[in-house]
């Protein structure tokens, strides 16, 4: 399978550099342009999980861990832009 990541463009709301990743479901998800390389553990109940979207469109959730933690899994992906956009309301649709 080839990578499902577009080239960088500017967010129409905040102007940040973003990309689009095609998810496993075939939808385009806006993500921050910077690739994040980290180690993740399964999220604990009540903890704030880090969400990353891999280049293959898989959504990965977990708690960041040290490289020395033997249970940690290496993950490379992009942070969804909805987590960092400074003007997210500009993309929300009005409800009837």
Could you explain the architecture of this structure?
The chain has one domain (9-91). Helix content is 0%, strand content 42%. The protein is built from no helices and six strands. Strands 1, 2, 3, 4, 5 and 6 form a six-stranded antiparallel sheet that branches. The protein is globular and about 45 Å long. The model has no long low-confidence stretch (mean pLDDT 87).
- Termini, distance in Å? 40 Å
Mind describing the biggest β-sheet? 6 strands, antiparallel
Which residues sit in consecutive blocks of at least 5 with pLDDT less than 50? Answer: none
Helix content: under 10%
Summarize model confidence as the mean pLDDT: 87
CA gyration radius, whole angstroms: 15 Å
**H/E element order:** EEEEEE
Question: What's the assembly state of these chains?
Answer: single chain
**Counting H and I runs of at least 4 residues, what is the number of helices?**
0
């Amino acid at each position: 399978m080839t990578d499902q990541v577009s080239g960088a463009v500017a967010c129409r709301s905040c102007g940040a550099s973003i990309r689009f990743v095609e998810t496993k479901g075939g939808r385009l998800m806006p993500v921050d342009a910077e690739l994040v390389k980290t180690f993740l553990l399964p999220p604990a109940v009540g903890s704030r999980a880090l969400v990353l979207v891999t280049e293959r469109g898989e959504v990965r959730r977990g708690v960041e861990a040290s490289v020395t933690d033997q249970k940690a899994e290496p993950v490379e992906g992009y942070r969804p832009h909805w987590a960092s956009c400074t003007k997210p309301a500009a993309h929300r649709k009005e409800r009837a």
